[in-house]
Amino acid sequence: MQTDAPMLPRRLVDPDAAVRRLAVMELPYSDVDDIVELLLPRLADDDALVRAEAVRALEGLEEPRVVQALAPMLLDADTAVREAAAGVLAELKETASAGPLLPLLAQGPAEVRAHAFRAVRALRCTQAFEPALRSLRDPDAAVRREAVGVLGYLKDAAAIGELAEVAANDPDTEVRRIAVGALGYASSVSVLPALTRALDDSGWMVREEAAQTIGKLRLARAIPDLVKAMHDEYWQVRVKAARSLGLLKAEAGLPSLVESLAHGISNLRKEAAIALGEIGDTRAIAPLEQALADPDPDVRKLARLALTAIGQAQRARAQGDPA
Question: Cβ contacts of residue 233 below 8 Å, gap of 6+?
């Protein structure tokens, strides 16, 4: 986009809001030395469309004066401006940028607090831990969701108990799902009761997350629960349960995994083939050979790989290799 750089400063203060908005949109593509100096005043423009464009034009310019100016835009009277600010702030990468956002974690409307938590989440700012922990009891589900996300990123063991409680009892399905996923950084089996309860949650996405998290944590004591999950009414849950049974090399899952090789959903057939290869039990050879005629080429490929893995495991055992 070609711009008339010398005219841009004048157009940015033109009486016509449409002219100012177009000038703001062109500014990032110009050869102006310091576009931030010209954009920051437009954050206070009388026209909401100009303010929103100014916010978006500042995306990626992560420096203290920009972050300091963008944080208050979460309180703007216009919804579009607030959403634009939330989107730009969510792209922050430097932990030091969290400073201006920290006060917003505990004050203002729920929407603002939720946006602020979302913005600091990936920054892994330890100062956000206490506000996030307190916000697990916030009346607003959106705030609780973002607070759980912050705790999941911080991976502080001090939050495990609270997250387990949220995973089991929060009234919002999405909050429970995120909390179950956040338990994936736990380093002990203390979260096992929460995860097995989550496998019986009323929300299938919570059950799906629980099945996946159990595999991540290699919780072998949950194998019977994963086998049960292989008969969940939602195939998405079965897919994650199959993945975890494979990671755990759970021979107890063999019958359910073999049965899944004939399921109508190809994604489940694929995961079953992968898991059977990881388990390495010779009883899976015949079913996997039948899967070589599967109509889905990916299933056929994965069945071949699984058979190869089982063969390698057999040879390793014959040679006395415990692997």
Answer: 204
Does some domain include residue 317?
Answer: yes
Amino acid at 269: R
Question: What's the DSSP call for residue 20?
Answer: H
Task: State the first-to-last Cα distance of the chain, in angstroms, to the nearest integer.
Answer: 60
Asked if pLDDT for residue 3 goes beyond 80, the answer is no
In a domain, 277, yes or no: yes
Cβ contact 198:231 at 8 Å: no
Number of structural domains, the chain?
1
Domain enclosing residue 259, as ranges: 251-323
Residue 275 resides in a domain: yes
Highest mean pLDDT among 96-100, 181-185, 224-228: 224-228
Instruction: Say if residue 37's pLDDT is above 60.
Output: yes
* Separation of alpha carbons 284 and 47, rounded Å: 67
**In this predicted model, what pLDDT tens digit does every residue of 195-247 receive, in sequence order?**
999 999 999 999 999 999 999 999 999 999 999 999 999 999 999 999 999 99
> Which token pair is 215?
């595999």
Give dist(CA 75, CA 83) in Å, integer.
Answer: 10
Q: Which pair of tokens denotes residue 285?
A: 């050879």
CATH number at residue 296: 1.25.10.10
294 lies in some domain: yes
Whole-number Cα distances in Å, 14 to 9, 47, 223? 9, 12, 68
Segment 62-95, tens digit of pLDDT = 999 999 999 999 999 999 999 999 999 999 999 9
Helices 160-169 and 141-154 pack at an angle, to 10 degrees, of 140
Burial of residue 17, with CB atoms counted within 10 A of its CB: 0-12 exposed, 13-18 middle, 19 or more buried: middle
